[in-house]
Amino acid sequence: MNKTTIAIIISVILIVSAIFFTSNKNNGVKEKSSKQTEKIVNNVSIINGKQIIEIKAKGGYTPRKSVAQAGIPTILQINTNGTFDCSASIRIPSMNIQRNLPQSGVTDIELGTNPPGILQGSCGMGMYPFQIEFK
User: Fold this and answer.
1) Domain of 94: which CATH number?
2) Are 43 and 66 in contact, with CB atoms under 8 Å apart?
3) How far is CA 54 from CA 44, 47, 86, 99, 113, in A?
4) What pTM value is reported for the model?
5) What confidence score (pLDDT) does residue 21 get?
6) DSSP state of 87
7) Residues 107-133: pLDDT tens digits?
8) Which candidate, 102, 103, 98, places its Cα nearest to that of 123?
């Protein structure tokens, strides 16, 4: 066999392996069994009837778009870790919310029970937007 044939065989094996390992995921859904009911879908979890949306703040917000359920009491949980930029100040104008976040730590913001729609937020300067779509 020549070097080209060997390279092709190795490439095919790697591609098939990658497809196999990525197809065994649960589309980002994890379920834990414990005394409290917990279902995690990406960055949104429901624990004891409250919906928690986790966002990281540093150089903007990650993820920039979250999808959550409407009609459930919701807490926006913002995690900062050495955040010194303007994303350490968060605004949600439609709810009259403006908070300065600590440089490192977790800040919970009660959002109440939201109807279907999109909730827009940003950093204090308006440079880094994020949104939560309630379905």
Assistant:
1) 2.60.40.420
2) yes
3) 6, 13, 18, 16, 16
4) 0.69
5) 66
6) G
7) 999 999 999 999 999 999 999 999 999
8) 98
Q: What is the DSSP string of 38-81?
A: EEEETTEEEETTEEEEEEEESSSEESSEEEE-TTSEEEEEEEEE
> Residue with structure tokens 């070097």?
3
Q: Is residue 19 part of a domain?
A: no
**Tally of domains within the chain:** 1
- Give CA separation, 72 vs 12, 27, 50, 75, in Å: 47, 23, 6, 10
Pairing of strands 50-57, 117-123: unpaired
Q: How far apart are CA 21 and CA 41, in angstroms?
A: 20
